[in-house]
Each structure stands twice: as structure tokens, then as C-alpha cells.
Specification:
Layout (H helix, E strand, L loop, with lengths): L9 H5 L8 E5 L4 H11 L4 E6 L2 H15 L4 E5 L5 H14 L5 E4 L17 H22 L5 E5 L23 H23 L5 E6 L13 H14 L9 H4 L1 H8 L9 E4 L2 E2 L18 H15 L6
Parallel strand pairs: 1-2, 1-4, 2-3, 4-5, 5-6, 6-7
Antiparallel strand pairs: 7-8
Helix pairs in contact: 2-3, 4-5, 5-6, 6-10
Amino acid sequence: MTDFGATSTADEVLEGKDLTGKLVFITGGASGLGQETARAMAAKGAHVVIAARDQAKLDEAAQAIRDGSGSDAVETILCDLASLSSVRACAKETNERFDRIDLMINNAGVMACPFATTADGFEMQFGTNHIGHFLLTNLLVPLIKKGTQPRIVNLSSRGHVFADVDHDDPNYQNREYEKWAAYGQSKTANIQFTVGLHSRLARHGIQSYALHPGGIMTNLGRHMTQEDMEWMTKRVKENAGDGPGLKSIPQGAATTCYAATAAELDGQGGVYLEDCHVAAIDDVSQKDGVRSYALDPAKAERLWAVSEQMVGETFAY
């Protein structure tokens, strides 16, 4: 059992750890949780690569990470997860520039946006939060296989309780769009993807984890209205129990750092973490735990098949 909890920070989780020699690839690394994760890991010696879709923001974040960590081993790469061609270009460049990836952290995301579609016609939240990461991760598996004790960490959310994945209509072509249900579907997909990765990659020594970072106000909520903000803040506080309610960004990045580095998680892939521990399966609680549908292996296989169809590529390991 971990000594860490809801109020632990990324620096506290990484205290005493040496990440020298580790190459860490982080999507959404130009702000918020991704940037803080990168700073905390760079401070422990990791070579950090942050990916995002805006080079100016990447450059600014990279400098902030260097300043905050005391490390110059910070690089950037462009990747728009809402465009499969951009994802493929990013993967190609990554494979050319680096000889391995030790820690792949799929942190980028979009939340509660009005209905929109990606460059390839997918519903924006499912397309960005899941499909973009599905393709990028699979295209980078050859590098991840070359990593030392490699791990894939997928940021999901407590929002997964809002909806299972509708494997027959993930893009809302035949049902009414509801932004929170769509967000929930995409976050459930992050967990089911983790289960699918675990079933395929554990035998290659690659561990895969999903996690809920906690309720945090970052630019993930850039599409939220004032009413949305008030509702979410109230919901987080009501469900916090004895916890902190809304977390700070350093507290939010803690579970990512824990999933990426904790020795006690070795051999425990395919699980969902919250507050720096493996969550229990719970189909009732509004406060914590993970819904059983998110960890269902059969649903994970359906999602994998649907995802391969959407990206037009199959991946066998």
C-alpha cells in the first residue's frame, strides 16, 4: 500500500527516485498537468519530450520546464491528436529522432466541448482523447519495446462514470450529442484502451496504466461555461469526502508520476489508479473507484477493433 494520497504532489512521489537515462514522451506537455509532469521528471534526470499542436506554446513550456527543473534535456515535437496525418507525422519524426521511449504518458485531452469533428470526421472528444492516442501509441510501440522497464500511462478521468463507450456509434452519428456523456465515453475509452494494451504488451515487458488525476482546473476546461464550472466544482466538493476537493496542478500530476515510476505497480498493468493507488471496482460510488465496464476485457477488444477500423490500420503484437 502506498503512503501517498490525494494531497501528494508530483515532487513528493518522485522524491528519492533517479530518472537519469529515462526518455519520457508526454502528450499535452505544453501546459497544465503535462507540463508539471515534465518538470517534475526532468528535475529527477529524465530526458523529456513534450508534444502539443502549437510550437510557440511548446517553446514557452519547454523553457519553463528547463527553468523549473534545472535540466536542459527538454525537447519538443508537434502533434495534433485531432488529425491522423499529424499523428502519423509525429510518430515518424519520433521514430527518427529517438532510439527508445521508456515512459509514454498520454496526457493531452479536450473536455465538454460543443459538438465538433476532428480532421478525419470523428467526434472531437473521442477522436482527440482516444483515437489520436490509440494511433500514436501503437505507432510508437517499436520504440517503447526498446525502453527499460517501459510503461504506458493513459490519463482518464472520474468522468468515465458518465458513460460507457457506444461501440456502435462512438461518433454520435445516430444519437443526440451530449457533451458530458461524450467526455465520459472518451475517458472510458482511455481505460478500455489500457486494458487492450495490457493484454497485448505485458508479455513484451510493457506495463500499461490508466488513471484519474483528480478534479483540477486547467485549460482542459477551456470549453466550459461558467455554469459548467460551478457544477463541476460543486460535484468535486460533494464527492471529495475527506479529500481536498479540487486539487492543485502539482497534486494532480502526482498520480501520473506514481503510475509511471512506482515499483509496487510492477506486474499490475491494466489497472486504473486514483490518488496514487489502484482503485477498486465500484459500480455504485459517486466518490471513487472504477466502473466495471471500463475494465471489461470484451469491451476493450471491441474498442480495439473499432479503433483499428477508424484509423485504417491493424496492430498485432
